[in-house]
Amino acid sequence: MVVALLLAGSAVLRLGDDAGRAYARVEAAGTEAPPPAPTGCTPPPDIAALLDAFRTREDRITRREAEIADRAQALSVADQAIARKLAALTEAEEKLRATLALADTAAEDDLNRLTAVYQNMKPAEAAALFEEMDPQFAAGFLGRMDPAAAAGVLAGLSPQTAYSVSVILAGRNANVPKD
Fold first, then answer.
1. CA 179 – CA 177 distance, rounded (Å)
2. In the predicted model, is pLDDT for residue 36 greater than 70?
3. What is the DSSP letter of 31?
4. DSSP code, position 36
5. DSSP letters of 108-141?
6. Percent helix, strand and coil across the chain, each rounded to 5?
7. What's the chain's Rg over C-alpha atoms?
C-alpha cells in the first residue's frame, strides 16, 4: 500500500510538472505578437496641415533663437568695449584732476614765492616796483604780505597810488555774502 501511494504521488508530481509547461505553451500560442507598426503612414489632411504649421513655427523659433543668441553676443562684446572705455575715461579723468591740482598748487606756490620775495626786499625798492604795477595787481600782493612788510611798501608809494591800492584792498571783500 505504501508502494502504491508512492507510485501515485510520483505520477501526480509528474503530471503537475508537465501540466504547467502545457499551460504555458497554450497561453503562448494564444498570445500573438502585435503586428508591426506601419512605416509609411500618411496623416489625415487636417492633421498634416497642423504638423506643417508646427514645423514652420519650429523653424521660425529656431531662427529667432539664433538671432537672439547673435544679438546677445554682440551686446556682450559692446558691454565689454564700453567697460574698457569707461575705465580708460575714469583713468584719464583722474590724471586730469591730478594735473589740475598740480596746476592750481603750482600757481599758488608761484604767488607765495613772489610774495615772499617782495616781502624780503627793502621797502623802498619794493615800493618802486609796486608804483609801476597795476593797482589791482599790487593790491593782490600787498594783501598776501605780512602786515608790517606791506605797511613799509605802502608807505613808500606815492599818495595817489597808495590811496588806489588801499581802496582796492578795503573793497575786495565788500561783495562777500554776510551770513
1. 6
2. no
3. S
4. P
5. HHHHHHHHHHHHHS-HHHHHHHHHHS-HHHHHHH
6. 85, 0, 15
7. 55
Long-range contacts of 121-130 (CB under 8 A, 24+ apart): 123/149, 123/152, 123/153, 123/155, 123/156, 124/156, 126/152, 126/153, 126/156, 127/152, 127/153, 127/154, 127/155, 127/156, 127/157, 128/156, 130/156, 130/157, 130/161, 130/165
What whole-number percentage of the chain has pLDDT above 70?
79
94-114 pLDDT, tens digit per residue, is 999 998 888 878 888 889 999
Residue 30 reports pLDDT greater than 60: no
Pick from 106, 101, 168: nearest CA to 141: 168
Q: Provide the 10 A C-beta neighbour count for residue 131.
A: 16
- Asked if residue 35 has pLDDT above 80, the reply is no
Mark residue 108 as left, alpha or beta (left: phi above 0; alpha: psi -120 to 50; beta: remaining).
alpha
